[in-house]
Every structure is written in C-alpha cells, then in structure tokens.
Design brief:
Aminopeptidase, alpha+beta, 8 strands
Length: 177
C-alpha cells in the first residue's frame, strides 16, 4: 500500500510490520486505558505480533499513523474490501491513538483517509466495525461520523462484547440493508 497523505490533518498511513515493532509497541503502551476495557489490559510485543498476524490472515492493511513530522501517533488496521467474503464490505479492525494525540481531530482525519482508500473500489458499499459496549466514548465517536449500530451486543471469543456498527457509503447500500 502506498503512503496515503492528508493535507487536511497532515497524516500519513505507513504500512507497518515486524520491522516497526518498537514504534507499534510504544503506541500500544500509551493505549493501555483502551486495552484495560478488554481481557488483556497491558500491552506486550506478543500482542502487537498477534494483531499483525491477524491482520494478515484477514487480508488487512496494518499501518502506523504518522504526523508529517515523522512522529507515530497511532495504529490502524483495516480490510479494504471483501471482508468475510463480502465484496462490498470494508472493515476497520483497529484504530488506536496515543492518549496525548486524542481529541485533536486525528481519529476523524484517519477515518477520512480510510474512506478515501476504500472508495477506490466502486464495489465497496459499507464500512463495518466492532465497538466494545463498555466503551461509550468510542461508540459516540463512530456515531458522530455516520456509523450506526446494526447488531449486538455480541460476545466474542476473546470475551469482549461488541456492537456491530456500519457506515453506508452509497444509496444502493442503504436500500439493500
């Protein structure tokens, strides 16, 4: 995946893998308030490696979110299409921002970039995400950006409970939902 740049928020997505483990781990460490909502409250390099492997299995794009000055401020993992065999569906598996960079429009800017990327495929009609029910600020974040709850609560294998949310990208998708 090429670097995607947003002039609006000066963000870059850079593909990230094992070679960026140190930077990715630093983001996870600063996101332990989010991790504490789930079954594993502390970050580890093994957690990062597991997320990288899961992304690869799902056909995802695991990226660091960087400011133009080179500072990593978050991580993003998304499946640009064909999520779970649905050619018209993209999926955001993970969006985490370091605490010190939250509430500055970076998450919204990252979502704009994801939407721009997935819209390159004219078949994509929706973006889906799972949001933990015990994370009301995240639910509000996604709702404020056009996502709606379409299913849940659902207990996942890792013992987290999520609402399934989606944003429809086309009028045809709205008619088919």
């Amino acid at each position: 995946m090429p670097v995607i740049i947003s002039n609006e928020k000066n963000l870059e997505f850079r593909p990230a893998g094992e070679e960026a483990l140190k930077e990715l781990f630093a983001v996870y460490k600063e996101c332990e308030d989010f991790l504490a909502l789930g079954p594993v409250p502390t970050a580890s390099r093994e957690m990062v490696r597991a997320d990288l492997a899961m992304s690869k299995t799902m056909g995802g794009r695991f990226c660091g979110i960087f400011l133009r000055d080179g500072r990593i401020v978050g991580v993003l993992d998304f499946v640009p299409g064909n999520y779970r065999g649905q050619p018209d569906t993209a999926y955001i598996a993970l969006l985490m921002l370091k605490q010190s960079f939250r509430h500055q429009g970076i998450g919204s800017g990252a979502l704009v970039l994801v939407e721009q990327e997935v819209r390159k495929d004219p078949r994509i009609a929706r973006i889906r995400i799972g949001v933990q029910v015990n994370n009301p600020s995240a639910i509000q974040f996604w709702q404020n950006r056009g996502f709606r709850i379409y299913a849940g609560p659902e207990l996942l294998a890792d013992q987290t409970t999520v609402y399934r949310m989606e944003k429809l990208l086309s009028p045809a998708a709205a008619a088919g939902s």
